[in-house]
Specification:
One of its GO terms (molecular function) is deaminase activity. Belongs to the RutC family. InterPro entries: RidA, RutC-like_sf, YjgF/YER057c/UK114. It comes from Patiriisocius marinus. By secondary structure, this protein is of the alpha+beta class. The protein has one domain: 60s Ribosomal Protein L30, Chain: A (2-Layer Sandwich). It is built from two helices and six strands, in the order βββαβαββ. It has a six-stranded mixed beta sheet with strand order 1-2-3-6-4-5, with helices on one face. Helix 2 links the parallel strand 4 and strand 5. Helix 1 packs parallel to helix 2. It is globular.
Length: 127
């Protein structure tokens, strides 16, 4: 089984030696998305709900490039720099999933994230 690299200009370009996602068989493994505006290349981290929305929209674009939607997501990993932002991040995240069929998930507070953003999200999805 070979892997297929997934890239789209509708999400931020990788800032290191990795790809936006890899499709292996029917499984999609995404890299973490942060709040980089794919059009301008600028970070948008002034307000946590707007930051989280941009992260989710970037993830939506990566999923779409693989022919998938949030309905295909089976696991999410959320990394946040301040657990006090959990409820605001969760409020935005919840808009993208039907609670009855939402994926498995973990949310972890970390010391720092790339470019010192407040939230990074990665996902695993299946066709």
């Amino acid at each position: 089984m070979s892997k297929r690299i997934i890239n789209t200009d509708k999400a931020p370009a990788p800032i290191g030696p990795y790809n936006q996602a890899v499709l292996h068989g029917n499984m999609l493994y995404t890299s973490g998305q942060i709040a980089i505006n794919p059009t301008t290349g600028e970070l948008e981290i002034a307000e946590i709900q707007a930051e989280t929305t941009l992260v989710m929209e970037n993830m939506k674009a990566v999923l779409a490039a693989a022919g998938m939607t949030f309905e295909n997501v089976i696991k999410s990993s959320i990394f946040i720099s301040d657990m006090n932002n959990f409820s605001k991040i969760n409020e935005v995240y919840a808009r993208y999933f039907d609670e009855a069929t939402a994926p498995a998930r973990e949310t972890v507070e970390v010391a720092n994230l790339p470019k010192f953003v407040n939230v990074e999200i990665s996902m695993i999805a299946s066709l």
